[in-house]
Amino acid sequence: MRPLTEEESKAVFTKLANYIGKNLIHLIDRQDEPYCFRLHKDRVYYVSESSMRLGISVARPNLVSLGTCFGKFSKTGKFKLHVTALDYLAQYAKYKVWIKPNGEMPFLYGNHVVKAHLGRITEDTPEHQGVVVFSMKDIPLGFGVTARSTVDTRKLDPTAIIVFHQAYVSSTVIRFLYSPTPSDVGEYLRDEDTLF
Amino acid sequence: MDVSNILASHAAKYQSITVEKETPLEVDPGFLTVTDLNPIDEESYNENLEEHLQSLARDGIQALYASLFTLPTRTSPDGPLAQLPPPKTQLPRAKPLPKPKPQTKWEAFAAAKGIQHKVRDRKEWDEERQEWVNRWGRNGKNKQLEEQWITEVPLNADVDHDPRKAARDARKERVAKNEKKHAQNVARAAAANPRDARKQDIEKTLATTRISTASMGKFDKKLDGEKKIRGVKRKFDPTEKSVADEAKASVALLSRLESDSKKTRREPQAEESVLNTRKAVRFASKGRGGLALGREAAGGRSSRGGRGRGRGGKR
Amino acid sequence: MGRRAKNKQGAPEPLEKKTYSTSKKLGKRKADSDSDLDDRATTRPPKKIKDSKAKPRAPDSKPSSKAKGQNKSSVKTAKSIPKSDSDNDFGDGWEDVEGDVDVNDEFSSDEFQGITNNLDDLSEEDDEDYPLRSTTQKFDFDTDEEEEGIQPVLKGNKSKQHERPSKIIPTSSDGSDDFDYDESADEGRVTMANMEARSRALDAKAAAEAELDEEELQGAVARKDEDDDFDMDEADEENDAEPFHLPTAAEREAEKHAGGPDLQVVQRRMRECIRVLGKFKQLAEKDRSRSEYTDQLVADIASYYGYNDFLAEKLSQLFPVAEAVEFFEANEVPRPVTIRTNTLKTRRRDLAQALVNRGVNLEPIGKWTNVGLQVFESSVPIGATPEYLAGHYMLQAASSFLPVIALSPQPNERVLDMASAPGGKTTHIAALLQNTGVVFANDTNKARTKSLTANVHRLGCKNVVVCSYDGREFPKVMGGFDRVLLDAPCSGTGVISKDQSVKVNKSERDFTMLSHLQKQLILCAIDSVNPESKTGGYIVYSTCSVTVDENEAVVDYALRKRPNVKLVETGLSFGREGYTKYRGKIFNPSVSLTRRFYPHVHNMDGFYVAKFKVEKRSKAAATVEEPVTIPEKFVLGEEAAVEQVQEDVGFDSEEDRPYLEEAKRRRMKAKGLRPPPRSKPAHRA
């Protein structure tokens, strides 16, 4: 566990800023309790200072995770956001997309959001903008990148893709009491292995 | 019935199985080689080279075959197999001879002074026990002093003088000294190769120069394919550094990021690269100069709308 | 609701219902017994049958029970009362219970009292009808058959078992109370006004009787005597009807060679054995010993349910014979599916609403938890709903709520979960901490920490540090915790219904190894706690096993090894008390503060929960030891000086003193006491 270097911070912040923009400052400079970013085994964790200080006692090989995992650095130094950051992204998201109930399951099974499933969308969302995907009941389901700006979506046909999904909540799921189909579970399992 | 005719014709057809030469052929069945030491018959050589060589080869092969059939055989599913004897011919060694070891300091000294090396036996005669004992190692004679049951203490010895400890320390010191000498010899031998020494020197110099700029190498441009400096440890901030400081640094970084993006938007490219701009402009405008190029671009922009965006994207 | 009750899952309520009902019975019974001992005895048997052993009943039972009921009624109305109680529980009462739970629990307390008093009102017809009904509902058996002979035995056993719960009932205002009411409530309302006072009196009597019952519990034999007089006639009848012959050792051998008896035979023999063991004096064949019957029964259980002999014996020793069979029977039935609301993300009501909209049929588990929901049926996979994926709930067995409830972590505490995968309890703790403080979730198995981490993140727990150590390293890694949860690795004899492989793959060696590990772990857990903690200083030890050597024995060991630790109330309103004596072992009396949960009683996995409080290592304790030890030594030294003449060959105690001193210091350290400063003995020397 160690603090991020400047380049690493830069990579993380630019990625986060894509979704939450200037609200990033609220993550860094919190009013309630000091929080910090820590790198451990290539994963970036967002953790309160008190937890972090206690976590220092745990030896590196034995520490599995602490706080919230935001994502990981690839070997080439690129940063990839994980769905586990969704809580914070949803809280501070600048642009949001709500999908209809019949679109929830397709999205959770890894499909992109098509126009037919689009319930609402923040106005003036530009093209290629990071957005957080919600269900109509305001449950955050995942995040992605818009394929078209809000204005452009009006003209599209119902099967056109609106949001490319990047991560969805089911990628954290490991165990299913009942499995939908074997291939899905396989996907979840694979994802889970790489997440942590 | 007279078969002599037939035999004669047969004999004419097939040559003798015995090879007669002035100097007998040397056959080494171990390597399956035959060496013909006879001088070359120049006449037949000049007359018909092919024939000459063939007859030479035939004689050699014949001799080799004859020797093979004299060898003891072993039966196998593929027929009888001759068992080759070990080869007689000495082959030259494949690898060059090892280089002599670099001399140790003592060897050099001894050679200079003409001191003979005398081999010391591993064993030593023990008068007391009347047997050969190890010179060192298990029950070594060199430990005798510290293991004897009674020791004479000099009159002027300290109160806490421990003869066993003193003897042991002395022995350990000898061992340590020898090890040190050995290490020095090894180092001296390694430095003996001037090429290696030079290489090390260059690497060291290069590493020094790379961190000898105004920013201690931090903001320098990386060359393509430039390797990381080896042996330099990355330094990270301590984990338990004040979180407040960290947050401050992050905020500063954030503001820098923002201002950077604004700056790059205002002035698209600040080129301080290795590109020779003047030359590039001359080439692109086909020698008409920068102004002409600008005019042309302004005229054509409407038709090529994608350009502006492309540049923005790069940013 | 009626439809639901018949549902396979049978509702979580049954478990509580059962306990309560039994306890009520007890209370009533006791009250009755005061007035008339004999009556009580007679009444008990029928009840027992119904509850415990409905399954393997024989066909002739129905008429016989009827007859019995009539007999009793003729003998005394008082007798009928207890029966009616039990009937209520299993009959109509149960259906309504669920309804009550859903709608409102408020009138439960009123009604409860009503119920207890109502017993008297019940008529004899109830006796006849209910037994049958109850059996049908509870088990899927063909209920037409019931043997009278068995009934008394069962009843007796049950009463013993349930004495503990009985205590719980009057005090608890649980939702569980409701189970019994509906029937009794109707009748009770009439007499409601005057009933209350009477019921209180009954409760008091019941409490007094608890001790009596306890004695009964210890020895099944003692009970037998009581039953003798009234059961005689019935027993005779039965014997005439079908003479039961216990196979001799030789016969069993032969049987084994023949490839084992068929299931029918085994089933019948088990039934008979239970019956005979219940009233051994009258029913047993003359020359056969009690142990022969027990052996036969255990062997039959092993073959019938597919256990290995060792485990079958070990488990059946835990219970009186009849209840043991019930326990084994319960292990064949899956426990209800339950989920826990993640209070970090949603509220139970909202979650229930959302799930109902998705076509899930569910209800709150019970009064004892405000986050649990039981799922009856679901048209969608309950583990793949968007709510699940978004971390609004966790699939979790009802039993694994218990240790966390017992731990009751307070905000801003530092909590350690020593064996945490797959994270159900960890996330529950984090939810109770409301994401304040910090939770250390440890698990030895690195592979399992993956799913643990995933669950922690899915449920949005932000204060959790996941690490992977051997639990025994713990005080060294980090100490000073306010609370520690040790859900120890165990044999899993409580969750056989989930993992049938336990039946055959556990041997004696496994049990010794496990309990050794558990003892090490519990000491580590105790040492990891900060005794100075202002809000905490608690340890909860739990296992999903029912055996005594993994539970009470471990707890007792910890109490002996760490003098600054004591057991406290778990804060769980139900569950049976831990054994203080078991097969010749006597544990610390405070072990009765621990709680056991059984599949056949509580309809949740077999479970054990103990809660410790770590106190400051008081100086007083240390000094008390000090004077005792050191003066002794002085005396020893002086004596040695005096007696030197005699024992110049003996030990030189003066010289040995420093070594003895050192050894003593080490021992005290190991016990967690502060040894005296070293300088003191040095001066003396």
UniProtKB/TrEMBL annotation, chain A:
According to its UniProt entry, the protein's GO biological process terms are:
assembly of large subunit precursor of preribosome
Q: Which proteins does it associate with, and in what oligomeric form?
A: Interacts with pre-ribosome complex.
State the family it belongs to. Belongs to the NIP7 family.
Q: Where in the cell is it found?
A: Nucleus, Nucleolus
| Source species of the chain | Sphagnurus paluster
The family database entries (CDD domains) matched by this protein are listed as: Nip7_N_euk, PUA_Nip7-like
Which segments constitute the PUA domain?
A: 95-170
Gene name, per UniProt, is NIP7
Keywords of the record, alphabetical order, are: Nucleus, Ribosome biogenesis, RNA-binding
Function per UniProt:
Required for proper 27S pre-rRNA processing and 60S ribosome subunit assembly.
Q: Which Pfam families match?
A: pre-PUA_NIP7, UPF0113
- PANTHER family assigned: CYCLIN-DEPENDENT KINASES REGULATORY SUBUNIT/60S RIBOSOME SUBUNIT BIOGENESIS PROTEIN NIP7 (PTHR23415)
Q: What is this protein called?
A: 60S ribosome subunit biogenesis protein NIP7
Recorded GO MF terms: RNA binding
| Residue spans crossing the bilayer | none
Q: Name one GO cellular component term.
A: nucleolus
From TrEMBL, chain B:
Q: Where in the cell is it found?
A: Nucleus
Task: Mention any Pfam family matching this sequence.
Answer: RRS1
What coarse category fits the chief subcellular location reported for this protein? Answer: nucleus
The entry's keywords? Nucleus, Ribosome biogenesis
| Segments of this protein annotated with the region Disordered | 75-102, 163-209, 255-315
Record-stated family: Belongs to the RRS1 family.
What name does this protein carry?
A: Ribosome biogenesis regulatory protein
Automatic annotation (TrEMBL), chain C:
Biased composition range(s): Polar residues: 62-77
Q: Which UniProt keywords apply?
A: Methyltransferase, Nucleus, Ribosome biogenesis, RNA-binding, S-adenosyl-L-methionine, Transferase
Tell me where in or outside the cell this protein is found: Nucleus, Nucleolus
Q: Which GO terms describe its cellular component?
A: nucleolus
Q: Which Pfam families match?
A: Methyltr_RsmB-F, RsmF-B_ferredox
Q: Which InterPro entries match?
A: MeTrfase_RsmB-F_NOP2_cat, MeTrfase_RsmB-F_NOP2_dom, Nop2p, RCMT, RCMT_NOP2, RsmB-like_ferredoxin, RsmB/NOL1/NOP2-like_CS, SAM-dependent_MTases_sf
Primary location? nucleus
Which residues of this UniProt protein bind S-adenosyl-L-methionine?
A419, S420, A421, P422, G423, G424, K425, D443, D470, D487
List, in alphabetical order, the GO biological process terms annotated in this UniProt record. maturation of LSU-rRNA; rRNA base methylation
* Bias (Basic and acidic residues) ranges: 29-60
- Segments forming domain SAM-dependent MTase RsmB/NOP-type: 327-615
Q: Mark out the compositionally biased spans (Acidic residues).
A: 87-109, 175-185, 226-241, 646-655
* Similarity section: Belongs to the class I-like SAM-binding methyltransferase superfamily. RsmB/NOP family.
Official protein name in the record: Nucleolar protein 2
